[in-house]
Amino acid sequence: MTAALASVRPSAAALGNDAKSAATAGQDHAGAFWDRQDQALRDKYRARRELAAITSLSRVKKCGRVSTNEGGEVSLHHTPGPEGEPGTAGFGGLATCGSVWACPVCSAKISARRSKDLEQLINWNADRGGTVALLTLTMRHHRGHSLRELRRALSAAWRHLTQSRGWKRWKTDLDMDYVRGVEGTHTDLNGWHLHIHALLIFPTDVSAEIPALTCEVYTRWAAGLAKKGMSATAEHGIDVRVGNGAVEKMGKYISKLAFETAGGRWKRGKRGSRTPFQILADAIDTGNERDVALWQEWEQGSHGMQQLVWSNGLKQRCGVTEVKDEEIAEEDGGGELAGVLPARSWKKIYPVAEDLIIATRHGGVPAARAWLDARGLAFEFEADTTERAVQLDPGDAPFAWLKAALAAEDPEQRRERRRSYYRPATAL
């Protein structure tokens, strides 16, 4: 905690931005990178579809499935990428839940935006010669504590800390700002575990003040927990990382929230610890009733909890635009309108919607048309009135890719997937 703070301009990798780091890795790795991106998209969409059958939240059940248009149609959007690279694609006119805690797709989308906000904040602070520290606050817990009980104690202790005279004095003296986040994990041995990450922002080098600030924070934090019958120790209840260490740890935290954890998002943490989304993955893969119950407890217990809270005026000072989670989730992210999918077509597309996005991402509007034509699905591409049928020429790179993808599909497996998706709980 006594290490000197240093001005920091983080690399993209420090904030978990795989896209930027991969883009500079060279052409040799481009194919593997896009393969990972495609698989991540498939994983998130599959998880959201399966989630519709077990979620306790009605908005999550409808997310990405139900059209918001009177006629039930859904729009397809596309923006071409740079020369030789895939573009972007997405759907519009669909209900979105905007849940950063309970939806695999919305969570990734929202967290990606928040990661960029934090990158902008840290770069702004570095430009003015400022420094950063990451404060982590935890509390003792056991299997007998419910998630709601832990959340109430966490909120009360943070409120007690930030409303105390000591905190306000330090905030004024050091011109300190913060961005606070909450993280949750679960182990079979000790149950739910909630803790706070707070990125502390300073306009100058305050390394000499960090030990005293840490002592003040721990004293107020422990007192706030005690009011709710909880406790913390000086050894495990508080941790402070400064300079680059703070940026790296905050980046890992955001990456986990973005549903894209290093080493595979389904991978278990240390000592059997699981994130909520890892619990969801296990519930989907095994159907284990206890995991389903744990996930539903998380949905209810985290409902209404903010992912990141900024101190007053900080966003405005560093130029970050105020955008609600729901607004981010509603953005189609695919650019210009490419076409319209009638309700009857969307019903058949929904079980494999990610495949249409991937085809459009790699081959543009012509590939989207070919994908739909191959399945006999109706669509409208208003911007292009040329012949709809597209011949898949093996000499044309985008269509060679699409033809290979179509040939690799197992018809019986695809039919079985569709049958499994059209249960009463997930019917359109």
Q: Which features would summarize this protein structure in a list?
A:
428 residues, alpha+beta, 2 domains, five-stranded antiparallel β-sheet, 16 helices, 8 strands, 13% strand, disordered N terminus
Describe this structure in words.
It is a single chain. Helix content is 47%, strand content 13%. With 428 residues, the protein is α+β, with helices and mostly antiparallel strands. It has two domains: 14-103 and 331-426, no CATH class; 104-325, no CATH class. Helix 2 crosses helix 14, helix 5 packs across helix 7 (210-226) and helix 9 runs antiparallel to helix 10 (289-302). The radius of gyration is 24 Å and the shape is globular. It starts with 17 loop residues before the first helix and ends in a 7-residue tail after the last helix.
Secondary-structure topology with pairs:
Blueprint: H1 18-23, H2 30-51, H3 58-62, E1 74-79, E2 88-92, H4 104-127, E3 131-137, H5 147-162, H6 165-173, E4 177-187, E5 191-202, H7 210-226, E6 238-242, H8 244-257, H9 276-286, H10 289-302, E7 308-310, H11 314-318, H12 325-330, E8 336-341, H13 343-349, H14 353-374, H15 397-408, H16 411-421
Antiparallel strand pairs: 1-2, 1-8, 3-5, 3-6, 4-5, 4-7
Global geometry: globular
In DSSP terms (H or I, runs of 4 or more residues), the helix count works out at: 16
What is the string of helix and strand elements?
HHHEEHEHHEEHEHHHEHHEHHHH
For the largest beta-sheet, the strand count, sense and barrel status come to: 5 strands, antiparallel
End-to-end gap: 55 Å
Multimeric status of the protein: single chain
Q: In total, how many beta strands?
A: 8
Mean pLDDT: 81
> Given the helix and strand composition, which structural class is it?
alpha+beta
| Proportion of helical residues | 40-55%
Going across the major beta sheet, what is the strand order? 6-3-5-4-7
Unreliable sequence segments: 1-28, 259-267, 383-399, 417-428
Query: How many domains make up the 3D coordinates?
Result: 2
Strand content: 5-15%
Radius of gyration: 24 Å
